[in-house]
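agent> fetching stored inputs for the copper (II) ion docking request
agent> found them:
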Amino acid sequence: MGGTADATVPKTPPLKKYVDPLPRPLTAIGDPYAYPGADYYEITMIADLWQFHRDLGEAEVWGYWAGNPHDRFQPIGMGYLGPTISVTRDRPTVIKYRNALPTTHLFQSVVDLIHQGNTQVTPPPYKGMGALPPDLNVWNVVHQHGGFTPPQSDGMPLQSFSPEGVHAPSYATLDPSRVEPNEAIYAYTNHERASMLWYHDHGLALTSLNVYAGLAGLYLVRDPADESLGLPKGEFEVPLILQDRTFYPDGSLAYTMTEVEGADTPVVNGKAYPFLAVQARRYRLRILNASNERFWRLRFEVDRTVLPETSLPFWLIGTDAGFRAPLQMLNFLMGPAERYDLIVDFSQVPAGTTVTLLNYNAPVHFPGIPGDGPEISEIMQFRVTERLSGPDQTTPPRQLALPPVAAIRPGPGTRRREWVVYQHEIFQPMTFNAIPFMAPSEDFVKAGSTEIWEYINPNHDAHPMHVHLVSFQVLNRQPIDAFAYQADFEAWIAGGRKLAEKPVLASYFTGPPIPPDPDELLSNKDTVKVYPEMVTRIIIQEFDPPQETIASIPGSGSELPATYVHHCHILEHEDDDLMRPWTIV
Ligand SMILES: [Cu+2]
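agent> prediction call returned; pasting tokens
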């Protein structure tokens, strides 16, 4: 998708900044009795109303609501986004997802374009399996992003199910006697490191529209061993779900990404330009980029009369898949689906100071083309105005003894696998290796093995690549002659993909390997920025899906072969076919 802005594209009316307090998603309450040994939740997708800003009218949005085991008339949610699911590491979770959305899409005009086969929004038809059925406008599936999950509970696009109970070809549910056709039960191991995962819609062909409508929430994995680390907690641990949205003058959501890149207004935890009143102490900010397309380059801005530098330094203590060694930073670049776990010390500025979260030098894409989408500079404000409720007894970040991250090192026999981010020309579908998503898996990974995946990006923008099931580390990047590689790759496809004639990556290098960015070094990740005109190498330690039965539910463990997906997390790209299955054997 994409194109240049023109006068017909909706624009949000001017909004007064920092008038709405930052909302905090509520935490869902698990039921420990339904499945012994696990916590059980029922989460329903519903259309509701939500006000994004004081001066905007209510918008129809989609969101997740959790059943309340203590009061069934008081479900937990806020309308937009979803409640936080907070779990203890290694204690399983069982969730029944129910699709109670309308059967007409919130962005029906875009769904109509998909049905019409408009090439801006629709990948080429593949003869193997149908995509969105012609008479269906809404279907959904929930993926736990970053989860170590058996395939039948992973929530991949071909597992979608609709409000009427229509199922995509790989729909699956556990405990089928307890579900209606518009429901599915999934089980999660929670065998991840302590980390902030998230759950979001992954509906086939509709992920970008469904997430834009509001279908995303947080999934916090807690490790009781971390209680002694001395981290800010309770009200001093604040999740920030960063998104961009465009609004019509009446306050309703405008989906503009068939016409421009990104949207024009920052929304944090569901509010446009919110503020948070804070105490002069350390806070733990757990940031998720839940935007469809937008990269954010973030820093904390203070007035030059307050500090000699205008950027307030902070500490990075964790990334997508858990803690890392504390690293003092001034700014960082965040692709869609990435998470950054920060300690920000508001006692470093005088009482009364205002700290602004800024997105600077910030086109929608990275590096992006100025004018190709609306730029957003200011996001939200922290006001150091609250009275100290007690001394700050958290550990200074420099002294934090966080669980160490060991480097995953390749061995002599480590298999390499190449994924070419392929687009013939701009506005045409994007694929891996010029193979549509729907074509059967042809990548077979040996169970328990380590692999290096090389994302070869001959394009001019970065793509955030996400691999389901596993976490990984960034090994390095290496610049390539993108023009020559693209030309030779296309010639190779045109020539019938003869294995012996495949372009040899090493002959296109234009420089030596570049080490990972400082925030990526010795960090566990599940999403990686694949920079343009480079190969980005990740090393995945272990392809080993959880095989045990979860919460005594028959069929809840993995069986081999186990097929998962990886994809670009620019949601318009994954819908437009930059996604492929791969199979553990
Ligand atoms: Cu992409």
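agent> quick read of the result: Residues 415-584 form a domain with the Immunoglobulin-like fold (CATH 2.60.40.420).
agent> awaiting further instructions
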